[in-house]
Amino acid sequence: MFKRLSLALSACLMVLGASELSAQNTPAIPGPLQSWVGWVLEDVPNLYCPSTPEGKECVWPGELSVSTTSTGASFEYRVFLDTQAEIQLPGNRDYWPQDLSVNRGNETLEVALIERDEVPFLRLPAGEYQVRGRFLWDQAPEVLAIPSSVGRVTLSLSGREIAHPRMSTDSLWLGDKASEKEVGESESVKATIYRKISDDVPLRVITRLQLNVSGKAREVELGNILFEGALPVRVQSSIPTRVPSNGSVSVYVRPGTHTVEIETITPNAVSELSAPTPGPQIYEPQEYWAWEPNELIRSVKLDGATGVDPERTSLPEEWRQFATYLVEPGTKATFTELRRGMAEPSPNLINLRREFWLDLDGQGYSVRDRLSGTINQGWRLNLGQGKLGRVTDTSEGSDLLITKDAESELPGVEIRKPGVNLEAESRLEEALSRLTVVGWNHDVQSLNATIHLPPGWSLLGGSGVDRMPGTWLESWRLWDFFFVLLVALSAGKLLGWRWFPVAILALILSHGHHDAPTWVWVVLLATLALLRVLPEGLIRKAVIALRIVALVSLAIILAPFVRDQVRWAVHPQVADPQFQTMDSSFGGFDADRSMAPMAPAAEMEPMQEQDEASEDFFAVSKIDSMERGYGGSASSGKKEKKWALQQVDPNAVVQTGYGVPTWSWTTWRLVWVGPVRQDHEIRLYLLGPLANAGLNFVRVALLILLALLMISRRDMTATRSKTMAAALVMLLAGTANAAEPPPIEPIPIQNNANLNANLIPLPSPGTPEGNQLLEELKRRLVKSQECSGECVVVSRADISVRELNFRMRAEVFAERDASWTLPGPADPLTLSRVALNGTTTNQLRREENGLVLVRVPQGRNIIEVEGVLVNRNSLTIQFHADTKPRYVTFRSSDWTVDGIGPSGLPDSSLQLTRQSGQAASDAALTAELPPYFFVERTWELGLPWQIRTVIRRQDASRPQLLKFTIGEQEKVISDGIRTEQREALVDFARGVSVVEFLSEIPISESVNISAPLDKPWTETWRVQCSQMWRCDFSELPRISDVNNGVYEPLWKPWPSESLVVSVSRPDATEGPATTVDKVSYALTPGKRLLQGKLEVEIRSSTATNYEITLPEGAELQRVFLGGAERSIRPRDSKVSLPIVPGKSQYVLEWQQPWERSFKEQVPAVKLGSDSVNVETTIEVGEDRWLIWVSGPQWGPAILFWPHLLTLLLIALLLGRIPHIPVKTWEWLLLVIGLSQVPVVAGLPIVLWFVLLSLRQRQPADEWWKFDLSQLGLVGLTLVAAGALYGAIHTNLLFDVDMQVEGARSSNRLLRWYMDQSAPALAEPALYSLPILVWRILMFLWAFWLVSRLISWVKWGWSAFSEGGLWKSKPKLAVARPRTQTEAGSPVPPSGLEPTRKEHGTLPGVRTPSQEEPNVQRRNTPSHTDVMPSRKTPTAPESTADEPTPFSPPQSEAEDDSKD
C-alpha cells in the first residue's frame, strides 16, 4: 500500500512540475496537499533554518556586551532569528534583567518577558534584534549567568576593557578571586584531601578534594595540592575549577559541599612521594591515601606512611578496597621494588588428537595430529618422532613453515598465538607396534588417538592405553567368561571331554563376531541333555521339535557366517569388520562417511562437509569431502589482518607435506584419562592379513565341527535322519540381497509472481491512505532541505598574525543557507569582529565545544575574522575537521605555524609558536590543561619490518598538534603524517582521541629501542615477531607476553630506559613444496581407441611446473585447470602443467590406439612426484565377459568363481540323493546354468525332484492328505518351471553377473585404490572374453536342459500319478447288526469297515489301498475303478511277498533298510 501511495505522489509531482515554496528549493507539491504543508512540518519548525554540524539552527545570538559599575551593569544583546523562537537573556533569579528594550532596526517592539526554570526568555518573530537592559546590585557578583550559545562576548569592568573575558559554559566572570582579608567571619572553607595512588607507568594519582563552603559565592585559591612533578590530565568538578601550569589550583565556590577531582600522572620513575603542603589554612591536618598496586607491572612495598582501616575513615566507598594510609603534610612515603615485570609464566596446556593410517602394505603410518590448547612459554612445538611434513593453522587456514630447532635440531614450528589450533601431518616409516604415542616433544593435558586399519588388519588390544573401546581383548566381561565356560563345560559333559578343547576354542575365537552363533548353543545343549533323561511321550516330542528348530537355526546362522569368513579370508577388501562392538566403527571404501572430531568439541569446530554421491571421483571420494572440511581451497578469501602473524619468508619453501590418506575401513579409538607425558609408550597387538585369514579358517573349522557334534541321531528317535540331512543340505544356500528403493528427488517448484504496479488515484488526507501520503510528503520536504554533501566548502583562507592580532580572510561557498565554523576556540583566540561580504555580522552562535559558527547564505561569500590571541608562547588554533579550508596561507613575523602541508592543506589544528618575547602575566589564567599523550609502539618484524604507532590522549575537546620523535632510520609511510627532521607531526582534530600511523625500518640483526626524556608522552612497547624470525630480548622486564590472543611481549619503560631485540632466522627443514593429494585415472576401452582421463589435485606453496608423462601413442585432446580449458600441448608424451600456489585441480583427456584382447593392462602414466589417494578405474564394456582381474590389493574381487565352486559342491551332495532321475554330472551342469540366478531360485527345482520321489514311494493314505500333496506338487512344478525359465532368460539376454565387489567396483566399472603411490602409477589388468562366448555356452546349456526336461517330465508325471491323481471323500454307510462270523473276523481298518461290509470283502483279502507303497501297481484312472464289485469276491492267492493281516508289522529299522 505504501509503495502505491509513493507512486501516486510521484505521479502528481511529475505532472505539476517544479516550483519554489520559499527562498529554498522545495519539491513541487500537488494542489490538494498545499494546505497540509504547515501541518506535516509542525514538529520540524527549523526545517528551513541554516544547517550546522549538529543540525538545523534558527537562533543566532551573535554578540553580548556587558559593562559593569559598582551599582549595576548594562548589557546590549544582538540576535538574529530565522523563524519565530524564544531567546534566552543574561541573568537568573538572583540577578534579573531590568529596563528591557527590544529594537528591530529603528522600530521598538513591545514584548513580554517569559520565565523558564528561573531564567529570563523573550519570544520574538523572525528578524534581527537588539536587546538592551541592565542589572542592579549593591555588590557586584563574581559570576553573571549568560546564554551558553552567545557567539562573542565583550566585557568592561568599571570602564576597563577586558581583552579575554573569562567564561565557563553559561557564566561570565565579573570579579577577581577573593583574598583572605575580604572573607568575612561568616565565610569559611574547609577541605579534606583524599588520594588514590595507582602503580603504573606512568604513576597515576587521583586527588579528590571535598570542600565545605559557607558564605557568598567567590573564587578561592587552594594552593599547590599536587605532587611534585605531577602533570594534570583530567579535572572533574561540580564547581568551576582551574589548574594552571604553575600548579596553583583555584575554584569558584558557592555555599554547600563540593567535590573536586584532579587526575595527574608522573612520567618519571618514582621512588618516593612527599605529601604537599598547601598554602591556605583550610585543610584537615592529615590526608588519606589509597594504594592500588599493579602486580603485572611490579611488586612494591610502601614504607613511611601509617596504615589505617579504610572502614574507619571517610575515604570514598569505591576506594576502600585498597590499602589505606594516613599521611600528614610533608611526610615522605618510599617505594621498595621487590619485583618488576611478569612472574614466571604458566605451563603450557596442550590437547592432542592423533589419527594413524596404517599403510596398505603395513610398512608405515601416515599421521594427522590436531593440537589445541594454550601455550604460555617456549613458543615453539617440536615433533619428537617421525618426519613432519605439513603444519596448518586451522584458525587462519594457512600453512606454517617447518623449521629446525637451533638446539635439538628437531623439526617444529614457531608459535605466535597462545591459542593453539594446529593440524600437522607426518610419517612413520616403519609399522611399529611399539609407539611413542604423544609424538611431540611436549607433555599433553589430554590425548585421544584413532587407528585406521586397512582391509585384512585388525587390532586385538594393546598396553599403555587407558581404554581401547571395541577391541577384542577389552570386550571381554565377566559374563562372557561365564558364558564360554558354561557352554564349553556342558559340551564336554554331554559330548565327551575330548571335545571340550574344540568347544572352548570355537567359542573364544567367535567371541565378539556379531553374526556368529551364540545362544543357539545353549538351546542345543539343553535339549540334548533333556533327551537323555526324558521318557517317550508328549514332552519328549516337544523337546525334539525344539531341537529341530534349533538345528535349523544353527544352519541358517552358520551357513552365511562360514561363507563370509572364507570369503573375507581370501578377499579382505570385501569384508565387513572382522570384529565389532558398539565402540568400534567400520566404513568401506565406498562409504561416504566423514570423521568428526572427538574432544574438545568447544575448541574445534565441525571440520567436515557431507557431499552428495556422484560418479565423478572428485565428488564422491572421501578424500575430497574430508579435505574440504579441514580448510577448503587455498584460493578462497581470508580475513584481512592488521599484521600477518603467520608471515613466512617468501624465499623460503613452505612444506606441503607427504599427503594423508583419507580412506576409512576399521577404526579404533584409544583413550587416555588425564595428562600424558611426552615419552609415554604404547604397544599395539595387530593382526595382519595372513594371521586373520588363518584365524578365519580355524574359526570356521571349529564351528562346523562343533555343529556336527550337535547332531545326535540316537537321541532323536522320533526323527528321520535322512530327512534331517536333506534339510541341512538345502539350508546351505545364501541369503538374497534386498535392493534399496531409489531416493525420491524433490520436484522444484517455480514461483513466478507478477507485481502490478498500476498507479492509484490520489487518496484524500485524513484517511489511512491519506495519512501515509502525508508522511511521504513530509519525508520529501525534509529531504529537499538536505545538502548533497558538506553544505559549506572553504576554498581558501589567508591568515596573518601580527603580535597578538589575528586576521583571516576566507572564501566560503554554501550550497544552501548554512553555517561555517570559525577558527577558535575562545581560550586562545577572542573574536573582535566578523564580517560577511564586507559587512560586520552578528549572526553568530557558539557551540558546546567552544567554537563559533557564522551564518552563511547560499552562494559565494567572503568572511573576514579579526581577533586577539592569548599571550602565550604556544597555542593551538583549530578548524572544524569537515569544513576546514582546502588551502591556507600564513603570514607572520612573530609566530611560526605547524599544521599546514606543503600543498597548503591544513590539519584540523594549527599550532602557533612565538618566535620571540615572553608570555604575559595572564597566561596562567588559562583553563587548558597541558597536553599529555600515551604512545603504544609495536614493532612488527615480518617482511618488511614496520612500526605501528598509536597515540592516545584523554582530552579530545580541542585540536592539538604533537611533534613525535621517531628513529634515525625510521620512515613514516602513512598518509596524512608529515615529518620534519626526526619528528612526525601528528594532528589531533577536535573529538579525535586516537591517531595511528605506520613506519618502516630496515632489517638488521638487532633493534635498539629507547624511551625519550622530557617529552609530553609515555611510551609502551610491543614486539610482534613473525614465524620466520626468532627473537630474543634484553633484560628489560616484560609486563606480559600475550595481547589480544597473539604473542606480543609488552614493556612499559620509564624515560631513558632501553631495550635490545636480537633477531635471527631459523633454517627450514627439507620437505616437498608440491603434494599430489589425490589422483583419478579413468579408462574407457573401445574397439579401436582407448579414452583416457587423468584428474589430479595438486597442492603447492610455490609457483612451478609439474610434469606428467602420458602413455606411449597417446594423443592429448584437452586440459582443464579449475574447470577452465587451457591450451597446453605435450612434448614427447610429457605434459608440463603450470602450478600456482594453493590447491589446483587438473584434468587431462587423451585418446590412443587400442584393441580388445583377453588380457588388457592399464597404460603406463608417470607423475612428477609421489602421490596419495590414487584411484584407477576401467570400464569393462557391455560386450565383454569379465573373467579375472589383477592389480593392487584394494581393488575388485570377482566372487563368482567361489560362488560357482560352492554350487558345484552342493551339486556333488545332491547327486547322492537316491530315487531321483538326476545323476551327479547332470546336477553339476544344472547348477552351472543356475549360477546367474539367486540361490533360492534353485530350491524349488531340488524340492521338485525330492518331493516327487517321496510321492512315488510313499503316497498319503488318507484322502485329504493325498489331495493336498497333489495340489502342492502342482504349485511346486509351476515355481520350478518358472525358475528354469528365468535362468534361461537371464543367461541368454542379460549380462553376466560376476559378483564384482570391493573398492566400489561393479561388473561394468572396476576400481583400484592405493593410499600411496610412486610417480609411476600402478598398472592393473583385466581378463575378459567377448560376451558372445558366454551366450553360446548358455545356448548349449539351454539346449541340453530342454533335452533333459523331456525325460524328467515323464518321470515326474509317472511319480505324480502313481496311485491316482485325486481321491474323493469316501461315503459313510448305515450300520447294520453284525453276524457271528463277522464278529469273529479281524476288525478292518477304520473308515473302510462300512465299505467292506457293503461289498462283502472277505477276511484276509487286501485292497489296493492296503498294499505296500513300493509294490508296483497298474495305472488306474481313479479310485472308483479299483473298487470291488458288490458281489463278494473270492480271496486271491497269497504270495510270499505280500503280508497278510495276521503277519507281524515291519519294524522301522527294516523300513529304513529297504529305503
Automatic annotation (TrEMBL):
Biased composition (Polar residues): 1407-1423
Keywords, ordered alphabetically: Membrane, Signal, Transmembrane, Transmembrane helix
Signal peptide: 1-23
Entry protein name: Uncharacterized protein
Keyword Coiled coil among record annotations: no
Organism for this UniProt entry: Microvenator marinus
Transmembrane intervals: 519-535, 542-562, 693-712, 1194-1215, 1227-1254, 1266-1288, 1325-1346
Sequence segments annotated as region (Disordered): 1376-1459
